[in-house]
Known about the structure:
The complex is a heterodimer.
Chain A: E1 8-13, H1 17-26, E2 35-40, H2 48-56, E3 61-66, H3 77-94, E4 102-106, H4 112-129, H5 137-146
Parallel strand pairs in A: 1-2, 1-3, 3-4
Helix pairs in contact in A: 1-4
Chain B: E1 4-10, H1 16-22, H2 27-34, E2 35-39, H3 48-53, E3 59-65, E4 68-70, H4 71-83, E5 84-90, H5 92-96, H6 108-118, E6 133-136, E7 139-142, E8 146-151, E9 161-163, H7 170-182, H8 248-251, H9 269-279, H10 286-294, H11 299-303
Parallel strand pairs in B: 1-2, 1-3, 3-5, 5-9
Antiparallel strand pairs in B: 4-8, 6-7
Amino acid sequence: MDNFEPKIVAFCCNWCSYAGADLAGTSRIQYSPNIRVIRVMCSGRVNPLFVLKALSIGADGVLVLGCHPGDCHYIEGNYKTMRRIPLLKKMLKQLGIEGERVRLEWVSASEGAKFAEVTNSFTQSIRNLGPNTLGNLKQNSKEAKHG
Amino acid sequence: MAKLKVALYWAASCGGCDIATLAIGEKILKLAEAADIVFWPVGLDFKYADVEKMPDKSIDACLFNGAIRTSENEHVAKLLRAKSKIMIAYGSCAYEGCIPGLSNFYNRQLTFERAYIETPTTDNPEKIFPQTKVKVPEGELELPEFYDTVKTLAQTVDVDYFVPGCPPEEKTTWLALEALVTGKLPPKGTVISHAVKAVCDECPRKKEEKKIKKFYRPYEIVPDPERCLLEQGLLCYGVATRGGCGALCPQANMPCTGCYGPVEGVIDQGAHFLSALSSIIDSNDPEEIQKIIDDIPDPAGTFYRYSLPDSLLRRARTK
Lengths: 147, 319
């Protein structure tokens, strides 16, 4: 698809990555407008369910952004995320969804430039991957029934 | 009081739920005092035509087990919904899709190829697949259509209550039947079980801190009979599964596999277990974490063993 603009949901932790996104904004760094930021208190709050929900209702990719290991405001929330995302990706592959649609990155409050870079590179990789067709799943299964 | 009219039906299921209905033992006599069974393909010789002739809402309650896999399953689900005042999804298949729902990892074509061509005991050189219509000398025969995707009962018709389990335990079955017989019905949509908390709450094993360096499959270790199975590295699903069964499997040294469905308030059991399980991995090193995860050969099949059709994604995306 030539003019495919990916829809990307970015879960940003309140203490680091959301502040990093703020810094990117106040520093007037330009980055891809494809992301929809959702602020969470900690990347450890991102239940795999949130990612599945986003993918099932039409997100083409999901970014999970948290504090660097060792920097978590809640001591070890981001370590839990570090363990969850690889297992979630492994499971997604079995469900026919490319693991690349989900990416975990560490962005601190001082890394506005990294926030922009991560956003841009993830948007590009999802653009290359193409749209996620899961959003139409419910209709698909109905059609498939008669197909 | 006039006797209750009860119907029982099986759709895509193994028959275990019908046996579970009988497992209530002598209480079946109490049921027989209070209720007449008007339709039960496993046990009594009624035809669909007999049900069609019944007035709408003339059956007091229908215990429907089995997932919706074919057009026949769907047709009878809709028929019984129209004829019944109360529709109960009985057992994990009707409630969440269960084992038949695992074919949502594939589609109809892949399922057919596996079942009618690839299996070692199949000899089918002409590649004959089930057809919905077949011409024979006597005329045209119709067979139910096999759907691409397995659905739960609630995705097909309006359901009043859910009874979890694969199959439901005797006491869970009786809890539902007792509610019917006494007329003390819970609010619509209730999952009828003795517990709203997880299986761990009923499990007598000793629980300490959960930190896992390596996952094992049940055949690989002989677990300590006293200690929490999950803490020993077995994929025990108890943390993410509704109790009410009495934690029978862990007490027999087998990890819980999750058949009672999610605990109250959880909408996707698989994601819930994934979350709980991965966060107790005892490592902060991405490479080591990956290695530990590699010991789980089939995460999707393990986490969604009973609930793929009822999950957020409902099925795998197939080409």
